[in-house]
Amino acid sequence: MSVLLLDDSTGWLGDMLPESVGGGAVLAACDPPAGWRAVEERLVDAFHVARECAADRAPLVYVVHSEDLRGSRSALASALATALVGCARAVAYEFQREGASANVVALPDGVNRSGAARVIGGLLADPVLTGELLDLGSAKLGRVQP
Questions:
Q1: Which of 38, 63, 82, 138 has the lowest CB atom count within 10 Å?
Q2: Angle between the 75-94 and 36-56 helix axes, to the nearest 10 degrees?
Q3: Cβ contacts of 136 within 8 Å, gap of 6 or more
Q4: 10 Å Cβ neighbour count for 89?
Q5: Per residue of the chain (146 residues), what is the pLDDT tens digit?
Q6: Which of 24, 55, 34, 47 is nearest to 122 (CA)?
């Protein structure tokens, strides 16, 4: 199974992921949603992709914007990003015995695109981590985070 659902700001990611990554899914939600309906639609997509990945024991990576995890852009974007973190952790916890892997990668503005693609491709190719949030930015350095 190979599913790649990307929003406009992460359209580059599809071109940069290694072709050797054949299984799993990437669902990106980095663009600020237009309204609550858009948040709901992305969460429904996230649920369906998670269900397919769990059933197929395929790795899943959600991609969010780093600032949304800290609530810096908008309440809607923050609600979506944190809900996707919860979804990844629920998949990891509920389907651990089945070998499912679900993680979240947070991308800041100006992220090194090839580095981000390598991290995401690595999570798909060798799903040794599960239930983790990997923030590729440095904005949180020196800050205490829950």
A1: 138
A2: 20
A3: 66, 105, 106, 107, 108, 111, 112, 115, 116, 119
A4: 17
A5: 566 777 878 888 888 887 766 678 888 888 889 999 999 999 999 999 999 888 888 899 999 999 999 888 999 999 999 999 999 999 999 888 888 899 999 999 889 988 999 999 999 988 888 889 999 976 655 555 55
A6: 24
Contact assessment for residue 29 and residue 64, using Cβ atoms and an 8 Å cutoff: yes
Query: What number of residues does the chain have?
Result: 146
Please count the other Cβ atoms lying within 10 Å of the Cβ belonging to residue 45.
14
Q: What are phi and psi of 115, to 5 degrees?
A: -65, -45
Residue 19 burial by CB count (10 A; 0-12/13-18/19+): exposed, middle or buried? exposed
